[in-house]
Description:
By secondary structure, the protein is mainly alpha-helical. It has helices at residues 2-29, 37-48, 65-71, 77-89, 91-103, 112-120, 130-147, 152-166, 172-185, 192-217, 221-224, 229-236, 241-275, 284-287, 296-318, 330-344, 358-392, 421-427, 440-444, 462-469; strands at 397-400, 436-439, 446-447, 450-451.
Amino acid sequence: MASDGVLDSRVPIAAGFAFLGLSAVLSAAVGLPLYEDRALYFLEILLERQPLVPNQRFGAVIPQLPLVVAMDITDQVIFLRHVFSLGYGLLPLLSALLCWLVVRDSERELMIFPTLFLAANQINFSAVSELLLSLYLAWPFLLLFSTRPTTSTTMVVGAALAPLLFFLHPLSFLLLFFLGVLLLICPSDGGRESRARRSLAVLFMGLGLVRLLWALSSVNAYERSYLDSGSAAYYLFPDSSIQAAFLCSILLLGLATAARYWRASSTVRHQDAHRGPGNGGEPALNHGLRLLPETPWFSWTLAASTAVLGLAVAAQIHAGEGIKLKSAVVFPLALALMAITVAAAGHARFQQSRTAWIPLFFLITLVYLLMGFSKAHGWQRATDDLAAAMAASPSPCVRLGPDEPLVLQSARMSAVDNWTAPIAALIFQTEKPATLLLPGDGCQTLVEKRVAYFTPWFARPLGALEARFGPIRVDQ
């Protein structure tokens, strides 16, 4: 019976990770990480034949390394496109696997919290950016610190992570401060390990302060554009009320899950207190959770609501609505889930059943897969239609404007109808490209087979493009 129970628990856990992996593979296979900014990254790396460091974010080179290596092996653009997409698309899966390696021998139940973050992050269409990469890197360390706060492994990983976060994104100062504070406030037994942890906390907070000063002193025009209230609201909040409700449900589900661990821990400790002298009473932490019902049905009702909302978000995105590069509200949501994780650590093991978390893990990862499948299918449909329109064009130069070409005007094409449409039209053509999608002036301004601009933000001579993609015909 025991062996059957172990087998029964392993199957849904393995299925959950398979869901995460399948979503990553689907995303990479259709080139979903090439949505918006990453399309520019890809083309820049091909043309320059070296990693791209956007806005001095040196940590952004990490997911580009597979492409840099592959370029020394082949010049096939379609193959390189898949390599680049895998470099970014596998980041959530790799983060989840590292989290599992940390908790599998101690408090497996904590795996729920990074999984909830990954599900919330699915509202971001490509789910890749330097800001999100910082969270992918931080979650394994957060779990490592929560379960083994004073080990040398924790100290070494933290010392390596802090400078990496420093070079990832201007807002990483918030994450550095946050992790530094957690390192300081968590309980300590004193001794050399505690001093090492305090030193690590000082490192995180010190780098956070330096990163903040650096961000304030070197803010560029792009970053300044998000300082006014309208742009900041667009950057921060999701595009639809369904997405907002999904994020709220994720947070409540995280709180309800942690509350069950805390209450189970309180019950065990309370029973032990009655057996021993002078230790009565209930932990103060338990008193802060009276607003959440204690019955398991509340957690499962939240889980079902979260799943339904996740499917609604998937359907909305597939219809071409609510698509955007990043809703930065996922970042503070991740910090909230991290704080809940630290509070729950040490309490999860007091559950009466150590496998009670597995159905929830299975459900959330299944929703994650369905959301990923919806985005991947919508993206493939849009890029295929764009490539077909370019291939069918009788002209070597298709004009791009607010209402042209016609193929970009339907809702299902909203994923590619943005400022990187010319790049997407180039890199998603299945054969050697012979047609360019260019702004109206670009189609007319030709000097010795050179175009004035490829997009208003991206200037390259056609000769350089031809060297990478093959001959490109342009009317003289």
